[in-house]
């Protein structure tokens, strides 16, 4: 009997050990596919918008959307804080912004914000079309109201504007028609805009200047009325939040200059150092406590950059009117490339075989630059505010040049060879495309589409009211925003047909990109950062 007991005991021990080995192997298999991946720069660690952590997400959303985990303290955006995206690393979330405020003052200013307030938009219309538009507005019968006025306005736009003009300015013109004679004449607004920003010591100086301008008396009164008894001030701010709760851990401030929403840069983080582009300077701060390590002035251009910071090989790169390389340890400027002229698109590194380039989108071209010397290697037509996406030796772009549109190139050491393109005339060609599973995904302008990477074959195309935010793909699901950030949408990446998996009203911002880390979605809202749970199995990693 004792002998039997000893054998059973040993067998039990052996069984227990084997179970532990099996569990260890199983856990090893799980952790090999499900690994927490931080988000250390714009569009993720690989700067391509694709999450590779293997964490299963919800397969659908109810009307109320995914579960809200937390909201941060008040963090302004838009004209008051810019449109930069969130970073998440090491249990912390980071955001940089140009924090604006209105300070009571006797001084008065006419600037871009005031021009937008009075309804100005810089049109590329012919003088004849502008005259025709204004005559139509002034001749509208006051009795024409409601849906009849809206129908009339839409018909006028359809009859007088090209498709491209309608996309860009149709809704703005309809809004002016609805105001009728209460709208400030366009020629008066345009005249004031051409004068540039104006500053005055007090109300008297403002009124004296406005009265001296050759514009209608009605316009003078409306312009003076639109100018507040305050002036805009700003500071560059970096915030660090606890990623599990949204609690502010630290806040770093530096003197800045008002830039409005034009300062919309996303920082990057590497080895405990956070690199941030503000309104007038680029900064390096300690990611643990926010203490400044160095700062370097940006070119004086009257506005801060929207370009996101790129770190590579102990250099920091930023497009701020030109492409600039800084020493990441000291902030010293290493080189400047004047061929890259932009402030909105973001640079990326293409490293394939022995080739290593910085690829940028500038106003009218795509440019490759040597990261060591700053020399231009090649350029090809296209360009715009959307940033290129690379995978292996493929480059995909979404160009504002309507003859280029969505396009794919093969990259060689000699340059970029166009393989296919889909011409597109869109009002907002600013969202960056994705490469995933041998296909290209676009969610921007007026469309969402899936295109075969190697051939350009269209798999599906869906008309949507998209935004300029760049989408994210995680667990085979495309996450994006629509209707100027009003709706959060999840779309199946299945190539056979468009299939929406979830849609909910969320009221996010329409420029910053979504961020997904550990199955949690971080979004920049109008006045905060919010975190949502997208995980199919919360608490299971």
Word description of this protein:
This protein is an alpha+beta fold. The protein has two domains: 50-102 and 231-533, Methylamine Dehydrogenase, Chain H (7 Propeller), CATH 2.130.10.10; 106-228, no CATH class. The protein is 20% helix and 35% strand. A hairpin with a 2-residue loop joins strand 26 and strand 27. The chain starts with a helix and ends in an 8-residue tail after the last strand.
Short description:
The protein has 541 residues and is of the alpha+beta class. The chain folds into two domains: 50-102 and 231-533, Methylamine Dehydrogenase, Chain H; 106-228, no CATH class. Residues 1-32 have low confidence and may be disordered.
Helical/strand content category: alpha+beta
Q: How far from one another are the termini?
A: 46 Å
Biggest β-sheet: count, sense, barrel? 5 strands, mixed
Mean pLDDT level = 90
How many domains in all?
A: 2
Name the helicity range. 10-25%
C-alpha Rg, in Å?
27 Å
């Amino acid at each position: 009997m004792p002998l039997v007991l000893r054998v059973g005991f040993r067998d039990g021990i052996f069984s227990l050990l084997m179970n532990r080995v099996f569990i260890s192997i199983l856990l090893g298999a799980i952790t090999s596919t499900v690994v927490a991946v931080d988000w250390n720069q714009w569009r993720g660690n690989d700067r391509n918008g694709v999450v590779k952590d293997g964490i299963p997400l919800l397969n659908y959303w109810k009307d109320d959307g995914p579960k809200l985990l937390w909201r941060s303290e008040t963090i302004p955006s838009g004209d008051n804080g810019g449109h930069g995206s969130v970073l998440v690393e090491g249990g912390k979330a980071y955001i940089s912004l140009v924090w604006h405020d209105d300070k009571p003052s006797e001084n008065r200013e006419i600037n871009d914000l005031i021009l937008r307030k009075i309804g100005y938009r810089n049109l590329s219309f012919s003088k004849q079309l502008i005259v025709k538009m204004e005559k139509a507005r002034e001749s509208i019968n006051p009795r024409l109201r409601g849906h009849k006025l809206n129908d009339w306005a839409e018909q006028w736009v359809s009859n007088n504007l090209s498709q491209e003009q309608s996309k860009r300015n149709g809704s703005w013109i309809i809004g002016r028609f609805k105001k009728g004679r209460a709208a400030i004449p366009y020629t008066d607004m345009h005249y004031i805009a051409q004068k540039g920003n104006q500053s005055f010591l007090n109300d008297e100086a403002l009124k004296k200047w406005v009265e001296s301008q050759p514009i209608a008396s009605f316009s003078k009164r409306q312009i003076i009325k639109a100018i507040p008894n305050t002036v805009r001030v700003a500071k560059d701010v970096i915030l660090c939040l606890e990623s599990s709760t949204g609690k502010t851990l630290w806040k770093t401030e530096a003197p800045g200059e008002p830039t409005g929403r034009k300062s919309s840069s996303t920082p990057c983080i590497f080895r405990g150092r956070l690199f941030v582009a503000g309104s007038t300077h680029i900064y390096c701060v300690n990611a643990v406590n926010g203490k400044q390590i160095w700062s370097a002035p940006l070119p004086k251009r009257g506005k801060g950059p929207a370009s996101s910071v790129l770190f590579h090989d102990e250099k920091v790169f930023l497009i701020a009117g030109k492409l600039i390389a800084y020493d990441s340890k000291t902030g010293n400027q290493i080189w400047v490339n004047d061929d890259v002229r932009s402030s909105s698109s973001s640079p990326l590194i293409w490293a394939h075989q022995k080739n290593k380039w910085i690829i940028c989108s500038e106003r009218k071209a795509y440019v490759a630059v040597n990261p060591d010397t700053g020399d231009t290697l090649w350029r090809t037509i296209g360009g715009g505010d959307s940033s290129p996406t690379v995978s292996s030796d493929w480059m995909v772009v979404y160009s504002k040049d309507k003859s280029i549109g969505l396009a794919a190139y093969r990259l060689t050491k000699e340059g970029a060879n166009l393989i296919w393109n889909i011409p597109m005339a869109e009002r907002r060609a600013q969202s960056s495309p994705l490469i995933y599973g041998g296909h290209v995904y676009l969610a921007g302008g007026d469309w969402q589409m899936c295109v075969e990477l190697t051939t350009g074959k269209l798999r599906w195309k869906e008309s949507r009211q998209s935004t300029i935010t760049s989408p994210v793909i995680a667990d085979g699901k495309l996450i994006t925003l629509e209707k100027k950030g009003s709706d959060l949408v999840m779309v199946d990446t299945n190539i056979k047909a468009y299939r929406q998996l979830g849609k909910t009203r969320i009221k996010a911002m329409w420029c910053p990109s979504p961020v997904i880390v550990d199955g949690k979605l971080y979004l920049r809202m109008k006045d905060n950062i919010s975190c949502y749970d997208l995980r199919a199995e919360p608490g299971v990693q």
